[in-house]
Amino acid sequence: xxxxxxxxxxxxxxxxxxxxxxxxxxxxxxxxxxxxxxxxxxxxxxxxxxxxxxxxxxxxxxxxxxxxxxxxxxxxxxxxxxxxxxxxxxxxxxxxxxxxxxxxxxxxxxxxxxxxxxxxxxxxxxxxxxxxxxxxxxxxxxxxxxxxxxxxxxxxxxxxxxxxxxxxxxxxxxxxxxxxxxxxxxxxxxxxxxxxxxxxxxxxxxxxxxxxxxxxxxxxxxxxxxxxxxxxxxxxxxxxxxxxxxxxxxxxxxxxxxxxxxxxxxxxxxxxxxxxxxxxxxxxxxxxxxxxxxxxxxxxxxxxxxxxxxxxxx
Length: 314
Prior knowledge:
Keywords: Sigma factor, Transcription, Transcription regulation
Number of strands: 7
Mean pLDDT: 87
Oligomer: single chain
InterPro entries: ECF_Sigma-70_Domain, NTF2-like_dom_sf, RNA_pol_sigma-70_dom, RNA_pol_sigma-G_actinobac, RNA_pol_sigma70_r2, RNA_pol_sigma70_r4_t2, RNA_pol_sigma_r2, RNA_pol_sigma_r3/r4-like
Protein name: RNA polymerase subunit sigma-70
Subunit structure: Interacts transiently with the RNA polymerase catalytic core formed by RpoA, RpoB, RpoC and RpoZ (2 alpha, 1 beta, 1 beta' and 1 omega subunit) to form the RNA polymerase holoenzyme that can initiate transcription.
GO biological process, one term: DNA-templated transcription initiation
């Protein structure tokens, strides 16, 4: 910076330019909207307090990303913040296909994505802007060692030069190249590869799913699924893989009476079709669909969405 900033309001106006993209960056690494907001607040506070030490050898944006990345790595070292308690359902769920590890996962509303000023990937990006926020990608990042996840996001999504990534992580360029090689190989194994791509059938398929689900039409829901579909419900660890397992779970849940009525309001999250669920006027979570062609590959039912209040990001 050519002029030393000594006024807090001037600093806030300058850093507000980067606030939304920093929030998305922290969300990618942490997988939690709540933790991402806390990390951004801590980043901006640390930047203000450390402003005298900023000598301008890197851009303000790079400096802020360095602080944000290290704040995220600190969060990941504190396992207590990443393991929310599982909910207690009003029924006995069938035995799951497996118990998932990423119980802290939260959705990222598309209204927040729209606030990111320039979301187009650079020419060296390995992942498209759309792919780099989809649930499969975010979940895959959570299963990587923290430094691998941070390096991959900084280099392969945001296209920071290897030298800057090394500086942000406090290591060497050679080490970063090794970290990236391992991260890319691991992420390819964790991700399901389906990915959501907009198609003319999306609106119709989404409508048919909502109609069948709200009417308790189990067969109608199952007809829309792929043979390898799965259902997850963060923060509950239960996952059900395959239509038969999903049917067993939905059969139990659909049998639970809801006097107020069950409704689904279309929305979007993580660049994917989604529904805000409600029992009468009471919120009942958020459901995100992952498509594979003209079928549904995954249903992710987020049971707790307190963080999804419009405007929570400032």
